[in-house]
Amino acid sequence: MKGKEWYQATEVAEEYEDKRFSQGGRLIDRQEKEAVSTALGDLEGKKVLEIACGTGRFSVMLAARGADVVGLDISDAMLSQGREKARGAGLSERVEFVRGDAARLPFPDDHFDAVLAMRFFHLIPNPDRYLEEIRRVTSDQLVFDTFNTPSTRSIYNRLLPMGSRLYEESDVSAMLERTGYELTDSTHDFLLPYGFYRAIPRSVADAFYRVESGLRDTEAGDGFASVTYWDARIN
């Protein structure tokens, strides 16, 4: 797994979005933002915390949809990119970026209406600890994603220098129940792993995605999706 030092490096933050969300990566960005927007629904006047906000691509989007947003991350370099993005969008007054640890959130109980945690749960060794802390600061909703097994991600994961924690649906259901949440919805996406899509042009990625969407819509294909977006509520 890549260490915290790598993630917090200024050069990594400056190149992060170009490497992750250029070419076919723009398709990934679109699908993730659609899933988040659908799950969170109407955000006008709501207070939302984004954990592991990185360069703020979700935080700024949520602010543009009417939410008052706090983006939390461990990397000052990533947060700097987020602040620049918010300024460019004219949304600095609606987004605050805070450096902090998701295991010890610097907020009072029930402070947020919703918490968003994308690209986070595959990196942490003890999800229950984080889920309990998230439940403490939110009064209603948690939206997050996981990488799944069985899926092509399992194969891709073996080739990566940084591993990812993979989940089965039963794992997610059990950890939510243990920590005081009720699962209300889930959406599966991407039969092929993200790394494949990032390596090809957007037009080719769109074509592959149309084909895999047809396969994923079958009962067998749906069970092998690489990614799931989860919508949970406080019990």
TrEMBL record:
One Gene Ontology term of the molecular function aspect: methyltransferase activity
Span of domain Methyltransferase: 48-139
Keyword vocabulary terms for this entry: Methyltransferase, Transferase
UniProt keyword Coiled coil, yes or no: no
The organism of origin for this protein: Halalkalicoccus tibetensis
InterPro entries: Methyltransf_25 (IPR041698), SAM-dependent_MTases_sf (IPR029063)
Pfam families, alphabetized: Methyltransf_25 (PF13649)
Enzyme Commission designation: 2.1.1.-
Name of this chain's protein: Class I SAM-dependent methyltransferase
GO biological processes: methylation
